[in-house]
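S.,

As promised, the adenosine-5'-diphosphate run. Input:
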Amino acid sequence: MTTPDVRTVLGDGDLTVVGQLVQASNATLVCDAALGGSTVRCVYKPVRGERPLWDFPDGTLAGREVASYLVCEALGWDVIPTTLLRDGPFGTGMVQRWIDTCEPDPAHLDLVDICPVAAVPDGYLPVLRARDMDGSAVVLVHADDTRLYRMAVLDVVLNNADRKGGHVLDGADGRVYGVDHGICLHSHDKLRTVLWGWAGRPLDPTLLTDLDKLARRLDDEFGDVLAEHITDPEIEALRDRILALLDDPVMPHPYGDRRIPWPAF
Ligand SMILES: Nc1ncnc2c1ncn2[C@@H]1O[C@H](COP(=O)(O)OP(=O)(O)O)[C@@H](O)[C@H]1O
Ligand SMILES: [Mg+2]
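Predicted complex:
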């Protein structure tokens, strides 16, 4: 099925609830959207099921998820699965295409994982040293992977306050997806992520071209589309973050405290 078809089925299909994600912090349901013989599995998060957050008083988490998807789509980066706002069995909410993931392979680390300090494999970047429950030195690591790198840059753009390991999906289709963007796009710096492994490195120039295009698009109707989901100061702050990256194209360092989300997975 091509992407426009997925969008149409997600947007206009009949939604049937098939399960609930019990470990989720808000009401997060798994649904099938069905239209004209096609079915697309999706996550459905009704606005009604959102727990209010004192630090994100404006708009809705669902709206922030949609705005984050629109920014990602405008960059052409394919990190966030198709996400849209629509009516559903529990009222308005966000629906997002479900991503089938690879079976975990016990012989290899996940894209984001923990390993003994002395055993960081080639192709992995260390992020944080810690002690496990037995007192042994371990390290939080992530893969030095171009798909994950784009997600890390996207998180800087989105000001993602919650990039946990569990919000990184290793897609069975060979792509890497990010999910749960309900606390993105605040106007104050809230970047919290496990993807700090590229801190201090220069930004890939091809991504800068995409960022430059996005900054220009914010001045036209794309800014109006985002304004349906986030506030004007938040759109201004998004523009400022993009311009700051273009001006000083280096991945930021984790300054200040609490720069790793908790729990980290
Ligand atoms: N689009 C998706 N495709 C596949 N799995 C998903 C998708 N969205 C969420 N999940 C899974 O469900 C878990 C909980 O969803 P999440 O969006 O983090 O909910 P919450 O906002 O309640 O934290 C995620 O960690 C992930 O494992
Ligand atoms: Mg989550």
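The chain has two domains: 1-98, 100-201+250-265. Residues 232-247 form the longest helix (16 residues).

- D.
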